[in-house]
Amino acid sequence: MNKFTGLLAGALLSMVVLAGFTVIPPTASYPAGDELDIPENINAIFKNSCYGCHNSESKNEKAKKKMKIDKLAGLNKSKLVAKLNKIVKEIEEGEMPPEKFAAKYPERVPSKEDQQALINWAKGEVDKLTQ
Amino acid sequence: MARRILLGLAGILLVMQLIPAHLPEVKTANPEDLLANNPVPEEIAAMLQNTCYDCHSNETQYPWYAYVAPVSFLVASDTREGREHLNFSAWQSLSKADKLEALDDIGEEVAEGEMPLKVYPLMHAQARLSEEDRQALVTWAEEFAEKVFEE
Predict the structure, then answer these.
(1) Which residues in chain A have Cβ-Cβ distances shorter than 8 Å to B149?
(2) ipTM associated with this complex
């Protein structure tokens, strides 16, 4: 093995390793905007549990109509409050994620702690917007 | 044979009348009512009353067949669920966020034809909304949301 093939092999190997870590597609980022602050832990829950159906490119038309997480920050304040309040309700009442999704991807159902974190975050944002 | 079957069905229907349907109670005095406390344009108020208020308020006007099983079971469950989701009679008691969420839902569900429920206009001619009616309701919900937000 000469120097060149060694380098090539090294580069390929590191690409494979890096690819293994980047499981989140690069499109899954949410512009937070002035009105909405989405901290990293909340972002992670969205990515893992919600974004798959609730994004503006989603093939799940119903989910897309009800909530597009990537478009939250672009909403006017009154709509934003409505959607954040909806998040609180759906999680509190155990409506989301839906049963079918939970049965198929149990590992994507947020833990009790994560659900509470999401609820607290959404409530906090509502309070900031409506005070 | 056919006579026996008919008699049997009639018997089942009769016995069914003994099962209570528990129609949600009608209350006419509602101090927290949306329309009693907010300036809502007349044609919008009429639409809300004609197409929504039977299930989404305490002022349900039950038709005679609402007292006849098995229709009574359906009317009771639709009315109960409707009031649970949104009760215009209790509008003033909602938080600002709940009001805004309700108005957002109204706009979405009326625009998408999810509300009123398909079965309702079959029996209530005054609840058949044209495209213009739906658009007027959607526009009102958006404008009213802005007012609620500024309150």
Answers:
(1) 77-78, 81, 130
(2) 0.86
